[in-house]
Amino acid sequence: MLARKSIIPEEYVLARIAAENLRKPRIRDRPRKARFIAKNGACNLAHKNIREQGRFLQDIFTTLVDLKWRHTLVIFTMSFLCSWLLFAMMWWLVAFAHGDMDPSTENTTNSTKWTPCVTCVRSFTSAFLFSIEVQVTIGFGGRMMTEECPLAITVLILQNIVGLIINAVMLGCIFMKTAQAHRRAETLIFSRQAVIAVRNGKLCFMFRVGDLRKSMIISASVRIQVVRKTTTPEGEVIPIHQVDIPVDNPIESNNIFLVAPLIICHVIDKRSPLYDISAADLVLQDLELIVILEGVVETTGITTQARTSYIAEEILWGHRFVPIVTEEEGVYAVDYSKFGNTVKVAAPRCSARELDEKPSILIQTLQKSELSHQNSLRKRNSMRRNNSIRRSNSMRRTNPSLIVPKVQFITPEGSQSASET
Where are the domains of the chain? Predict the structure, then answer.
């Protein structure tokens, strides 16, 4: 505004703006890496340029089950409507070929005993109603077949067979879509974030998993994979390189008893891809840890699978999950409001390799944590004492009845001395 009124020269304003832009640091956010597995378990993968589309029609049942609900319902409705219309046209042709559509036959019915192929079928509408009655086995008694036309009997048998096939396929498809395994996986939850902390003297990668239903998952097992972009010594670039990492389980089998939320632990040792990663390097790592929980649904016996993933930004170094299982009146209670809550704990910021080479780092970290904890306790106690002293002084000032009066003492020599107690 000032520059437009020529109060300040325009050259000065432009130079000042340029200087301010140079002084301000430009912070550019690092481009966010595309997730291979979303937090809800969906695969972030798009299939393009598939030339052999006919392979999906060879497995038509699986294709129908994989379709979206709106597409499945449209196909379900159209399959029945098209079959009813097709056989209605066939019944109309049979009646037309036999002469049942001729108006003169209606007048000669009582005299010459005219027997139609299907009674009361004299238009396409009546043929369509008879087609529905045949395929869905609804008989109202107005339209019925006779033994006059062998072709009509053949059409009846054909329509019954086709109707049974359509019922079996479409009803089976609807049942499979409602009883899919991933529906049960909606009640299997994972913690929003994972943590890295010390457990039993080792750095461990941990996350929490829980089941919201009372019906259990039988033979539940947990697998962890690391997905990252790697380059081989020969120069080959592998964009999605999957590496299995072991899960620390005190039981010999890999199965877990998921009756209450559990903390799944992976010990970062020499076999782990996280062995050389420190707290400072974790932010710069372009990796994704995929968690897969598999098990059999107790009520249906169908195998289900729940998935999630953790990227570097979702891994908290030096944190631990708070306990959420308590015993109340002889019953174990789970507080799901604290399912993903964590607290800071003492943990070395170095990698697991450095911790194995120098075990004294862990001892020093624990000692520093203990000293800081003691100092915080001392400060807290001193603040409490100071607050109590201030409260007592303020109470004495505000309440004069608490002030002790002066008392005079007489010595044996007869002199008086005033003292205040």
Answer: 67-179, 184-345, 358-390
Task: Give the rounded percent of residues in the chain with a pLDDT score beyond 90.
Answer: 15
Domain 184-345 has CATH 3.60.40.10: no
Angle of helix 69-98 relative to helix 150-178, nearest 10 degrees? 170
Backbone angles phi, psi at 235, to 5 degrees: 95, 5
pLDDT tens for 247-261 read: 876 555 567 888 889
- CB of 355 closer than 8 Å to CB of 348: yes
The neighbour count for residue 113, using CB atoms within 10 Å, is 7
How far apart CA 79 and CA 75 sit, in angstroms, is: 6
* CATH of 67-179 among 3.30.830.10, 1.20.5.170, 1.10.3720.10, 1.10.287.70: 1.10.287.70
Instruction: Give me the residues paired with residue 334 across strands.
Output: 325
* Structural Rg of the chain based on CA atoms: 41
pLDDT tens for each residue of 137-160: 887 777 888 888 888 889 999 999
Q: Containing H/E element for 228?
A: strand 217-231
